[in-house]
Design brief:
The structure holds two protein chains of two kinds. Chain A contains nine helices and 13 strands. By secondary structure, chain A is an alpha/beta fold. The longest helix of chain A has 24 residues, at 286-309. The relative contact order of chain B is 0.14. Chain B is elongated and about 115 Å long. Classes of the chains: A alpha/beta, B alpha+beta.
């Protein structure tokens, strides 16, 4: 089976609310694909549609070229984690994995393997009701890995994890992708996907706003801006403005300069004897890039709304 | 960079319903509350049975301090407890032969006030050939009844209708080996065969003669929550003439015997009817009270049926209903249903696997409870002095297995309702109202027998008919209400009603499970 997810033109309404409005994207193997958008953007609904749990009014979602509902041992092809809290609290973590394994024709040995992979061996024989959210997330990942699937669909897997857990999860997701799996990870916080995602699908209001590689996204958001560290902030702003640059204050000793190359900035500051300690090319964070993108989207929506109101 | 698609090294597995069954069984056994719930159901069934037996009080003191020797009734040739009390004018008959008599009148009086009354429908008088005068011995009788014409009856349960209903009625019984043949006639010349019965092992010398018996007059008044019965003894007097004895009759005249005369434990109050016989010219007049018939189980009876060991089934059923509904609704409550349906997208099969698992574990639990309760409670009842209505092994197996099957199918019903409603409180309420409530209303004498019968026909509680172990006898007037242990439907038909409701609920559950977003 081809390790891909193809989502094409999904539409779904819940009464008067449009949940999915032509959602279309593809998840390819060997990459972690971030699925980002504010709460209510349709991420979870899309994931449920991929897993055949929710029906859609139009469009289709295919996993490895087939609708999920036609898969015979789905967990051997798609591992998923939708809600880490979906556990019977009286059942131990191990028994939760055991019934899932049995449903796919797998045995207890496979359960013990995945428990080791997610580092939950010490707690696995305890009632799931006693687990912290972080442990539930690990149990959910173990469940997703049971069938050793080429495709993984994970809804907010780092939600509620401590920093150590988040670091582990990032490395783990990257290693899964490095093995050639297609990994779709949703989050409502772009920063959570920093250093994890290779590609992001950014959604809002039930459709895709951007479908772009993380490298391209950051490059476009960074532009040709320069970060300048200086103790003489006012003086620096004056001379650089005279030289035709746009200058913004981004910290106590930090200025962001655009409109001039790095060499010109150094030259202008030197000519005017303005002291500075560092000049570097500005690199946008994923979060900044996301904010830039969604600001456009928000402004666009605001403008449309205003026009409509007139 | 080109990435090669990930290939799992896991061995391929067969796709089968067996895997789903195994997964659902793992789910069930790993939640301790469910296992405990079923064990509790079994315990409740056994304990309520034992409690009922322990709490039942059996005491009887005969008049004037006589002992209660007759508290255990005589047993007929087939093992069933019987009434065998009547007045008999008899002689011995050796070998083959026949007795013929004409019954000219049959009248009854109420023995409480000696006023003449209408004969009871099953007041009977006629001729009889009986193994001996010991109560419970084999017999064949041809009698005129108060309301059912000529009947040929034998060995307490056999009852064949004749055609003559006018008086005088001619009656003839002919013995030939083990075979007794009955004929009736309106004029003594034109005889019709009523029936031929076999009394295996009948000795060569038997008692034969004229008898009269009349059961108590019973009026059962039912109202909401209460039932009251008024009962008084009646005395039948029958006049016979044209008596013709063929064969070897060594005695020289009639001997009168009050067969099965109560040695004590009779209904209190009321003078004993003046039973006896008189020879008048070529005729004989016989007056008798009592009945020759099987004893019918019921509210007022002293005997216990095997299903009375299983009265706790309704309480066990409540526990089963809760466990079965929760087996499904807890998945909705926790969102686990999404995990289940992602693991097995063919949703109908998930429901089917769950139904098989909950049905099977409930069946085994119910079977264990019934197999323990029936002998255990029976032993306590016997120890208390009650007699048990004996039933054929096949009937006992049907009651035990039927009770287990009733619990199992009710569990599946509850699971299906839980699937539709997705809330345990709602599902449990619906199923209890559908099955347990009608049963309790009908059985606990809360409702009169009319509405009770109706409830036990149209609600899933009809399935409790699988527990009825004793038959209704057309030839015995008694209250055959649900409160007496008599169900309006046959065991199979009653069980089919529950199965029908369950099939319907499963159909709706499958439909909504497939259609709904998980």
């Amino acid at each position: 089976m081809e390790a891909t997810i193809e989502v094409t033109g999904l539409r779904k309404r819940f009464g008067p609310t449009v949940a999915l409005d032509g959602m279309t994207f593809t998840v390819t193997p060997g990459k972690v694909t971030g699925f980002v958008g504010p709460n209510g953007a349709g991420k979870s609904t899309t994931m449920r549609a991929i897993l055949g749990l929710d029906s859609v009014d139009a469009g289709h979602a295919l996993v490895g070229g087939r609708p999920y509902r036609t898969l015979r041992h789905p967990l051997r092809q798609v591992g998923s984690l939708l809600d880490a809290g979906a556990l019977q609290p009286a059942r131990t973590g191990r028994n939760h994995l055991l019934w899932l394994a049995h449903s796919q024709g797998l045995g207890a040995r496979r359960v013990d393997e995945v428990v080791g992979q997610v580092g939950l061996a010490s707690a696995i024989r305890r009632r799931a009701g006693s687990y912290s959210l972080g442990m539930r997330q690990r149990l959910g990942i173990a469940a997703a890995l049971l069938g050793d699937p080429p495709v993984l669909v994970l809804d907010e897997p780092v939600n509620g994890m401590d920093p150590e857990g988040i670091r582990w999860m990032r490395g783990f997701l990257r290693s899964l992708a490095a093995e050639g799996r297609a990994v779709l990870v949703s989050s409502h916080l772009m920063s959570e996907l920093q250093d994890t995602a290779d590609h992001v699908v950014i959604v809002g209001r039930g459709k895709v706003i951007a479908d772009v590689s993380v490298a391209d996204l950051i490059e476009s958001a960074s532009g040709d801006r320069i970060t300048l560290l200086t103790t003489a902030r006012t003086q620096a702003m004056t001379v650089l403005a005279h030289a035709g640059a746009t200058v913004a204050v981004t910290g106590a000793d930090t200025l962001t300069v655009s409109g001039l190359s790095g060499e010109r900035v150094v030259a202008v500051l030197g000519e005017n004897a303005v002291p500075f300690s560092e000049v570097s090319a500005h690199r946008a964070s994923l979060e900044e890039a996301y904010m830039e993108l969604t600001r456009d989207a928000v402004e666009f929506h605001a403008a449309v709304a205003e026009e409509a109101a007139r | 960079m080109t990435m090669t698609t990930y290939r799992s090294e896991a061995p391929p597995a067969r796709d089968g319903f067996g895997q789903l069954l195994r997964a659902e069984w793992t789910k069930f056994r790993t939640v301790r509350g469910w296992v405990i719930g079923l064990v509790a159901a079994a315990l409740v069934i056994v304990l309520i049975g034992l409690f009922g037996a322990a709490a039942s009080n059996f005491s009887c003191a005969g008049p004037e301090g006589r002992s209660c020797a007759a508290s255990t009734p005589p047993v007929g040739p087939d093992g069933e407890p019987v009434n065998d009390r009547f007045y008999l004018a008899h002689q011995s008959l050796s070998g083959d032969g026949s007795i013929t008599a004409r019954l000219t009148s049959l009248t009854t009086v109420s023995s409480s006030d000696n006023q003449k009354t209408e004969p009871e429908p099953w007041t009977k008088a006629g001729i009889i050939i009986k193994e001996s005068t010991t109560p419970g011995s084999a017999y064949a009788a041809l009698a005129v009844t108060g309301g059912h014409g000529v009947r040929m009856q034998h060995n307490y349960t056999g009852d064949i209708a004749g055609t003559v209903s006018t008086k005088p009625s001619w009656l003839r019984l002919t013995r030939s080996g083990d075979t007794i043949t009955g004929h009736e006639s309106t004029d003594g010349t034109d005889w019709h065969l009523v029936g031929t019965v076999s009394l295996p092992g009948l000795p060569s010398t038997v008692r034969a003669g004229l008898f009269a018996a009349s059961p108590h007059h019973e009026v059962i008044t039912e109202s909401f929550v209460s039932t009251s019965a008024t009962s008084y003894p009646t005395l039948a007097t029958a006049e016979f003439d044209r008596i013709d004895l063929q064969g070897t009759w060594p005695d020289t005249g009639w001997t009168g015997d009050s067969i099965g005369d109560r040695a004590g434990g009779g209904p209190g109050g009321g003078a004993e009817p003046p039973v006896g016989f008189d020879e008048t010219g070529d005729g004989v007049t016989v007056s008798g009270a009592g009945n020759i018939a099987p004893i019918v189980a019921g509210r007022g009876g002293l005997g216990k049926t095997i299903e009375s060991s299983l009265v706790g089934a309704f309480a066990g059923l409540i526990a089963v209903i809760v466990v079965a509904a929760t087996f499904m609704t807890s998945e909705y409550r926790r969102g686990l249903i999404r995990t289940s349906l992602a693991a097995s997208p063919r949703r109908g099969r998930v429901l089917a696997a769950k139904a098989v698992v909950i049905g099977a574990v409930t069946f085994v639990t119910g079977l264990a409870a019934a197999v323990i309760a029936v002998p255990l409670v029976g032993a306590v009842e016997r120890d208390k002095g009650h007699f048990m209505f004996p039933v054929p092994t096949a009937t006992e197996v049907r009651v035990v297995v039927g009770t287990a099957a009733l619990l199992a199918v009710a569990a599946v019903f509850s699971l299906a309702v839980g699937t539709v409603l997705r809330r345990s409180a709602g599902a449990v309420t619906v199923v209890i109202v559908a099955i347990v409530l009608p049963y309790i209303l009908a059985i606990a004498s809360v409702l009169p027998s009319g509405p009770s019968d109706w409830l036990l026909r149209v609600t899933p509680a009809a399935a409790f008919a699988v527990q009825q172990s004793v038959p209704e006898y057309a030839q015995v007037t008694a209250s055959y209400a649900p409160a007496d242990g008599y169900f309006p439907l046959t065991p199979l038909a009653g069980f089919a009603v529950l199965c029908g409701y369950t099939a319907l609920a499963l159909g709706v559950a499958t439909f909504v499970l497939r259609r709904r977003d998980a």
